[in-house]
Amino acid sequence: MKKRIVSLMLTAAMLTGLLSILGMTAFAAAGDVFALDGIEYKVLTVSGNTGTVQVGIDSLNDQAVPRTTQGELTIPATVSWAGITYTVSSIGDLAFYCCSILESVTIPSSISNIGDLAFSNCISLTSVTIPNSVTRIGTCAFSSCSSLTNVTIPNSVTNIGNESFYACENLTSAYFYGRPPALFGSYVFDDTAPEFTIYYLSSQEGWTTPTWNGYRSEPFDTIKFGDLNGDGVVDIFDMLYLARHLAGWPSYESITVAADVNGDGVVDVFDALYLARYLTEWPGYEILGSQ
Q1: Percentages (nearest 5) of helix, strand, coil residues in the chain
Q2: Please, what is the Cα angle at 105 between 101 and 106, to 5 degrees?
Q3: Alpha carbons 157 and 12: distance in angstroms, whole number
Q4: Degrees, nearest 5: CA angle 118-195-173
Q5: CB-based contact 172:193 (threshold 8 Å)
């Protein structure tokens, strides 16, 4: 009897090892949940030794990462689990909901969908990279991200849900690189910063200025970056204007997107450094003022 039990155990172990070598599993199925490198995933599809997963499990109280996750987070394009290689194709509903000290998220180009409430109430989030593979940004996906100051919407996005960026009180700009999304929900950019503006490429049809869909709008490829004082020339006087703005001088509080010379969506000392290098003809800074 003991010999038979030992034989069965050895047979099971050998079968498990063989499945592993062949890159197969008898148990993977849609709906399975697993965690790798601190991120939780849910299996969407399985076909042989490949499949797709989403980040998170669509749970209000069980996020893709602990809510204490801080700093920068990079979502991988693929993950391997139980002998199967999965493409990370979606960010699930509520995936990072209320991750209040998460500051930056890089989304891979394998992602096509950002789910409802995916980053809602991530109040420390200052930077998110949305790749040119995302077609849908869900309802309230980035709502109440109060530290977010700008966002770039690639031309792949055709669907932006209701209140996607609602109550992002410091959001000043959204840069669109394609036509207006075919599906554009209600209150998408409501309760953002008073100066909030939609910027778009003048070559893309469907946009209007000075407003589009109730929001201030203007083409950004016609802006003369670096020309802060509006005299048509980028020179030392623009540098002086920016320095006074950063130092908080009276009458220099107002600033336009033309001051964001390094294109990171924030007007700060790094723009002053970029401008100084342009004016002193550093290599690599030649295009300033002609963007």
Answers
A1: 15, 25, 60
A2: 165
A3: 49
A4: 45
A5: yes
Distance between CA 57 and CA 283 in Å, rounded? 48
Percent of the chain at pLDDT > 70 equals 86
pTM (2 d.p.): 0.74
Distance, in Å, from the CA atom of 178 to the CA atom of 155, rounded to the nearest integer, reads 4
Is pLDDT of 47 > 60?
A: yes
CA angle 209, 213, 217 (to 5 degrees): 35
**225 band by pLDDT with thresholds 50, 70 and 90:** confident
Instruction: State how far the Cα of 136 lies from the Cα of 110, in Å rounded to an integer.
Output: 13
**Residue 202 or 262, more confident:** 202
Share of the chain above pLDDT 90, in %: 61
pLDDT at 287 over 80: no
How far apart are alpha carbons 89 and 77 in whole angstroms? 8
Which phi and psi (to 5°) does residue 127 adopt?
-145, 130
Asked whether the bond before 210 is cis by omega within 30 degrees of 0, the reply is yes
pLDDT, position 7 = 52
The encoded tokens of residue 241 equal: 């204007």
Residue 23 has pLDDT above 50, yes or no: no
In terms of DSSP bridges, do strands 102-106 and 136-137 run parallel, antiparallel, or are they unpaired?
Answer: unpaired
Q: How many CB atoms lie within 10 A of CB 187?
A: 15
Angstrom distance (rounded) from CA 136 to CA 158:
6
C-alpha closest to that of 205 among 185, 169, 180, 176:
180
